[in-house]
Amino acid sequence: MSTAASTPSAPSGYMTDERRMIQETARTFAMKEVLPVANALDPIQGDIPDDLRRKLGEMGYFGILIPEEHGGLGLGMFEYCLVAEELARGWMSVASLIARGNGFYRSVPGAGDERVERIQAMARGEYLGAFAMSEPNAGSDVASLQCRARRDGDDWVITGNKYWCTFADGADFIQVICRTDSGEDPAKRHQGLTAICVEKPKGELPNNTKGSPIPKIGYFGWKTWELAFDGCRAPARDTAGTEGKAFYAVAAMLEGARAHTAARSIGLARGALEDAIAYAQTRVQFGRPIGEFQAIRFKIATMATEIEAARQLMYHVCTEIDSGRRCDREASMVKYFAAEMAERVTSEALQILGGAGYTKLHAVERHWRDARLTKIFEGSSEIQQRIIADSILGKPAKG
């Protein structure tokens, strides 16, 4: 039995020679630099080392989407997701880390040459962002956010709580979604949100902010924080002309974010499949490798098919995004399909490994834990189903 069934493929209409080179380079990097680190640190919940982040920066992976004139690679969503899939094959957290550059360069605080220098540093992985939107009582219902900011001279003053802020300590700034109006009119709650960039020293939390890491069951390699802002100050200059418009800015970025989540889902599912194939070829029961039993062969066939189906849908969505066409429904479809697929495939891989899969001696349990998260973040599977259904049937009447 060959592992070729798990190797990414694509029709020539999608894959150019340049894209194949990007894919192969990222695959080599992930297997050589990322996977060994993940295998060593995930079991002990260790943080992604600075040395690996430096290597990611040298590869240009923080600046795939950043324009060349700002020090980035100036490539598209397609190339970004190609790389993200390969990195997630090694460790999904590393595939997520590169979003702290690619997904944040438009939000870099400052002005003029200072801001340009920060974007250039971001492309090198030296200046990165974090995102604080969810709250203890508000997640998918973004319009219900209650963390508030008021103007005080040239500053915003932020007071309130945030939840699920990954990399709050390691980032150089946090983009905090705050309510800047009263929010008393239910029909206009979404119009009163502002994205405020709070700069901070790397390795620390912002001024007048306390926090504690959330005890997660996976997504190790970095910490995810609960934050309490109590008079945290940030310059108002960076929100000029964008006050009250954060809801629309968040909505606009979701197509790319959901394609990126699909890429991560596909990568970790592929890792689980490849590990299951390798195990099935060497694990002998009843006098022969278990990969010769039809039950195992059919599992592997189904797993490989589902991964490839998700990948082809992702390629289509990335192409639409790079073409400038709206594809919010398709982005929700690929996020939903790939996340659900990843949980099924990683669970089946663990089943193929049997008792060995239920130990930390094999990476498949990591893939399984991380796959479960893909059904929750960037909009849960149920939210994606709602978006898809509304686009087909129209929004239901409010009763």
Mind explaining what this structure looks like?
This protein has a 4-stranded antiparallel sheet, with no helix packed on it. 47% of the residues lie in helices and 14% in strands. It has 3 domains: 121 residues, Butyryl-Coa Dehydrogenase, subunit A, domain 1 (Orthogonal Bundle); 116 residues, Butyryl-CoA Dehydrogenase, subunit A, domain 2 (Beta Barrel); 146 residues, Butyryl-CoA Dehydrogenase, subunit A, domain 3 (Up-down Bundle), CATH 1.20.140. The protein contains 11 helices and 9 strands. It is an alpha+beta fold. It starts with 16 loop residues before the first helix and ends in a 6-residue tail after the last helix. Strand 2 and strand 3 form a beta hairpin. The chain is globular. The longest helix has 37 residues. Helix 3 crosses helix 7, helix 7 runs parallel beside helix 9 and helix 9 runs antiparallel to helix 10.
Number of helices: 11
% residues in beta strands: 5-15%
Low-pLDDT stretches: none
CATH topology of the largest domain: Butyryl-CoA Dehydrogenase, subunit A, domain 3
**What is the CATH architecture term of the largest domain?**
Up-down Bundle
Average pLDDT taken over every residue: 94
- The CA-CA distance between the termini, in Å, is 57 Å
Largest sheet: 4 strands, antiparallel
- The helix/strand order is HHHHHHEEEEEEEHEEHHHH
Tell me the count of domains: 3
Helix content: 40-55%
Please identify the structural class as seen in this structure.
Answer: alpha+beta
CATH hierarchy, class of the largest domain: Mainly Alpha
Q: Which term fits the overall shape?
A: globular
Radius of gyration: 22 Å
CATH superfamily of the largest domain: Butyryl-CoA Dehydrogenase, subunit A, domain 3
Please give the number of β-strands.
9
Side by side, the strands of the main sheet go 2-3-7-6
